[in-house]
Amino acid sequence: MKVSIITDVLNAKDTIEQAIQSVLNQTYSNIEYIIVDGRSTDGTVNIINTYRDRLAAFISEPDNNHFEAMNKGLRLATGEVIGFLHADDVFASNQIIEKVAAAFAHRRVDCLWGDLVYVSNKNPEKVIRFWRSCNYRPGLFKRGWMPPHPTFFVRKNVYEQYGCFNTDLPISADYELMLRFLHKHRISSCYLPEVLVRMRLGGLSNKSFKNIMQKSMEDYRAWGVNGLAGGIYTIMMKNISKIPQFFVKANA
User: Fold this and answer.
1) Which long-range contacts (CB under 8 A, 24 or more apart) does 44-50 make?
2) Helix pair angle (232-240, 209-225), 10° resolution
3) pLDDT score recorded for residue 248
4) By the number of CB atoms within 10 A of the CB, which of 36, 132, 180, 193 ranks highest?
5) In this structure, are residues 38 and 10 in contact, taking their beta carbons and an 8 Å threshold?
6) What angle do CA 145, 150, 152 make, to 5 degrees?
7) How far apart, in Å, do the first and last CA atoms of the chain sit?
8) Alpha carbon distance 145, 187 (integer Å)
9) Mean pLDDT in the chain?
């Protein structure tokens, strides 16, 4: 089973090499690695170029937002299963893709996800938040639940059937996509109860109060564009559900 990993990047010279090595050092051999750069100007491209012979594809051109870049990667991907590793993130170990591929092979599901830890920008070994997920069951999205998108792996044919990221939602396109796949279309899924990705703090959606408010508004719109009734309560619970993540310890 070929697994495609897509990294979208823009001006991340301090972290991009760690992300690249995290993919290239995986024990699973059948990985197609694609990097989509938004025309970085800080030296990021120079770093990527040192690994060009180990990449399946690399493009560097302007894009409107990182979900547009991720869609470019999806169009290039030829793997049966597709996952993302953002330029600030790393896989929790070098065996993650091996475990993901085994789960897809044995459980024959359309998608899967695991747990996520948020780590300090200055000290990636310091865990700030632990996002422990669970298996999906109908109704969870209504209660504010969602899987950690950086750990979300999906079969390529699901994207072909149900579409890619909605770039009209520049902050919440990941939420909308998972809502569409799991809640609306009820694709089959499973949960791997271990940390799959270590993510540095500082994501777009949490950078400021303004961004948090914009994300909440986009989350609300995500239900509407799918013809679903979510409501203010659902979005409120989605934000409240993050609070326990600061108080749970992770073994990662």
Assistant:
1) 44/9, 44/10, 44/11, 44/12, 44/13, 44/16, 44/87, 47/13, 47/16, 47/17, 47/20, 48/9, 48/16, 48/20
2) 130
3) 62
4) 36
5) yes
6) 70
7) 27
8) 16
9) 93
Residue 149 C-alpha from the chain's centroid: 4
Q: How many CB atoms lie within 10 A of CB 127?
A: 18
Please tell me the distance from the alpha carbon of residue 150 to that of residue 165, in angstroms, as a whole number. Answer: 14
pLDDT at residue 123 in the model: 82
The tens digit of pLDDT for each residue in 192-224 reads 999 999 999 875 545 556 777 888 899 999 999
How far is it, in rounded angstroms, from Cα 50 to Cα 92?
24
User: Measured between alpha carbons, how far is 104 from 153 in angstroms, rounded to an integer?
Assistant: 9
Burial 133-144 (b: 16+ CB within 10 A, else e): beebeeeebbeb
The share of the chain scoring above pLDDT 70, in percent, equals 95
pLDDT digits (tens, 9 = 90+) for 23-76: 999 999 999 999 999 999 999 999 999 999 999 999 999 999 999 999 999 999
* 99: exposed, middle or buried (Cβ count in 10 Å: 0-12, 13-18, 19+): middle
User: What integer is the mean pLDDT of 71-84?
Assistant: 98
